[in-house]
Structure to design on (191 residues):
């Protein structure tokens, strides 16, 4: 059985020698780093912010970091032998991407789709700061509605916010199940 990533990292750190770890920010840079033979790499908010077109390091959120890390890890998880075999069979870049990379990243894309939908449904901070749900409630998101109901001092404000939170939970769960059913997620091919 192949050694786990955690065990390889522990062994690398136990060597008590300097570890040269270049910074990666997307799948291409991670792939080039792995092909160059580096045994470790790191990922920074500055790199992710730059590659996603954000103007400032402070604007790369945790969800963007997780999304980018998922793509990098998914791309690095595809064995290089798959690409070598396809290249020997005469497959061009597009065929290797279409028949190897995209199918093997299906579970990563599924995860990113579900988490992206969940995060979008739960957004409240940006509309709260920018418009407080206005004009005329046009930018009120479900979580902003829950937040506004909770901080209201009317008689049933707590009940409204709790009910809306439970409805949001059910909607997010139902849509997530529908996404999983529609895409038919497979287990990983390589253990």
């Amino acid at each position: 059985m192949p050694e786990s990533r955690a065990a390889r990292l522990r062994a690398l750190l136990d060597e008590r020698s300097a570890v040269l770890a270049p910074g990666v920010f997307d799948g291409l840079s991670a792939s080039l780093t792995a092909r160059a033979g580096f045994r470790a790499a790191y990922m920074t908010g500055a790199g992710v912010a730059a590659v996603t077109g954000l103007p400032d390091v402070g604007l790369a959120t945790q969800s963007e970091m997780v999304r980018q890390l998922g793509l990098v890890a998914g791309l690095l998880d595809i064995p290089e032998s798959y690409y070598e075999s396809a290249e020997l069979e005469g497959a061009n870049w597009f065929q290797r991407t279409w028949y190897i990379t995209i199918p093997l990243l299906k579970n990563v894309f599924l995860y990113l789709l579900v988490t992206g939908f969940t995060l979008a449904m739960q957004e409240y901070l940006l509309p709260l700061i920018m418009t407080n749900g206005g004009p005329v409630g046009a930018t009120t998101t479900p979580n902003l509605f829950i937040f506004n109901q909770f901080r209201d001092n009317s008689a049933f404000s707590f009940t409204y916010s709790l009910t809306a939170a439970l409805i949001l939970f059910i909607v997010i769960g139902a849509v997530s199940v529908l996404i999983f059913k529609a895409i038919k997620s497979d287990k990983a091919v390589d253990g």
Remarks:
- Residues 157-183 form the longest helix (27 residues).
- Residues 1-77 form one domain.
